[in-house]
Amino acid sequence: MLHYSHSLVNQNTLISSKKIQKCKASGDLVIENIFTPKEIKKMLQALTKIANLAKNLNDSNSIFDLDPSHIPKNSRIRRIKNPFYNHPVFEKAARSPKLISVLTSLLGPNVRMHRSKIKLKAPHDGVPVE
């Protein structure tokens, strides 16, 4: 479980009070530039590395929820559970001061991550991920 210290939060938030109000009213929010292109590239590389582990599986496990059509020759992953436990780049992303700043602006200073997941969908014929 990740615990965030309020002292890690950059008080120069990426989110305005107007955006916070809009988010609370509509339930949606887009914040750009939380991660740099270099950080995103590292996350995509880590995602590929983790996803390659599913190629040898026949069934879902504690890391992967597999699509019903998944076979080792044709890997189809629905979700990667708790990626911050499975690769250090996702732990670093979860602890990003920019991300924490946005979260604490929305939720207050006592933010704690219990779980996370990355949802994936195959192009064209993937089943909906719920």
The assigned structural class equals alpha+beta
Ranges where pLDDT stays below 50 over 5 or more residues in a row are 1-11
What global shape is seen? elongated
Cα gyration radius (Å)? 17 Å
**How much helicity do the residues have?**
25-40%
Number of helices: 5
**Biggest pleated sheet:** 3 strands, antiparallel
Amount of beta strand = 5-15%
Instruction: Return the string of H and E elements.
Output: EHHEEHHHEE
What is the strand tally?
A: 5
User: Whole-number average pLDDT?
Assistant: 84
CA-CA gap between termini: 23 Å
Q: Please list the strands of the largest sheet in the order they lie side by side.
A: 2-3-5
Please give a quick description of this structure.
The chain is α+β, with helices and mostly antiparallel strands and 130 residues long. It has a domain at 37-123.
How are the SSEs ordered, and which strands pair?
Layout lengths: L1 E2 L13 H10 L10 H16 L11 E3 L10 E5 L1 H4 L1 H7 L2 H11 L4 E2 L3 E3 L11
Task: Please explain how this structure is put together.
The protein has 130 residues and is α+β, with helices and mostly antiparallel strands. The protein has helices at 17-26, 37-52, 83-86, 88-94, 97-107; strands spanning 2-3, 64-66, 77-81, 112-113, 117-119. Strands 2-3-5 form a three-stranded antiparallel beta sheet, with no helix packed on it. The longest helix has 16 residues, at 37-52. It starts with a strand and ends in an 11-residue tail after the last strand.
